[in-house]
């Protein structure tokens, strides 16, 4: 069929160029690594470092996707419990306590965060439900610090100077929480609806700030 091919031969002296190997994808040890196999101590330390990094992002707010990319609810839970404990006015059966009870603060914070998240989603937000909860919860950190400072100030007595100091601290931390949350959430909203998203956030942190400012120990 092909008479010319019979005279064709390949010389043994002609080198064959190229590498005759079957390409195999690089296999890293990390591919076989699973968090189920690591010690509990390593898991806890990794989670604590992640929570600490998010606290730093809140205290130095800037436009970043760190809270949105690696979201978690451990930090918000710790902040919510800490704030509720510090706002605890007295024993559960006390009628003359000077502040809201633990359950009231806990429900107000989480219910408010859920309402804001639903409002953001209905307005066309591009972040998930739990990402929004994560941001709103972590941005309670400045107000938690304000509550701690107010408790220390109240140890010295409740007077005009004490109230002025607490007012300055609460107002500053209220602004910090609002700015931090909007810095993380603003880019996830349509440009013409950002005001409709920021206003509920403003009210959310204002209510928490009001609880902190008006708190008086038993």
UniProtKB/TrEMBL annotation:
Belongs to the YIP1 family. One of its GO terms (cellular component) is Golgi membrane. The chain crosses the membrane at residues 71-90, 102-123, 135-157, 163-185, 197-216. Residues 58-211 form the Yip1 domain. The gene is YIPF6. The keyword Transferase does not apply. This is Protein YIPF. The keyword Transmembrane applies. GO terms for biological process: endoplasmic reticulum to Golgi vesicle-mediated transport. It is a multi-pass membrane protein. Keywords: Membrane, Transmembrane, Transmembrane helix.
């Amino acid at each position: 069929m092909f008479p010319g091919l019979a005279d064709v031969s390949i010389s043994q002296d002609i080198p064959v160029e190229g590498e005759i190997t079957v390409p195999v994808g690089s296999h890293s040890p990390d591919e076989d690594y699973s968090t189920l196999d690591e010690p509990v101590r390593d898991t806890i330390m990794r989670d604590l470092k992640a929570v600490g990094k998010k606290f730093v992002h809140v205290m130095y707010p800037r436009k970043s996707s760190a809270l949105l990319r690696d979201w978690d609810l451990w930090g918000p839970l710790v902040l919510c419990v800490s704030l509720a404990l510090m706002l605890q006015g007295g024993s559960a059966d006390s009628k003359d306590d000077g502040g809201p009870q633990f359950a009231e603060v806990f429900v107000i914070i989480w219910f408010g965060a859920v309402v804001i998240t639903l409002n953001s989603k209905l307005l066309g937000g591009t972040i998930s439900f739990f990402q929004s909860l994560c941001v709103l919860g972590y941005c309670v950190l400045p107000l938690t610090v304000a509550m701690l400072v107010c408790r220390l100030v109240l140890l010295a007595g409740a007077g005009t100077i004490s109230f002025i100091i607490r007012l300055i601290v609460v107002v500053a931390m209220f602004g910090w929480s609002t700015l931090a949350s909007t810095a993380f959430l603003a880019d996830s909203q349509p440009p013409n609806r950002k005001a409709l998203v920021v206003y509920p956030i403003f009210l959310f942190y204002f209510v928490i700030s009001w609880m902190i400012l008006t708190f008086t120990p038993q």
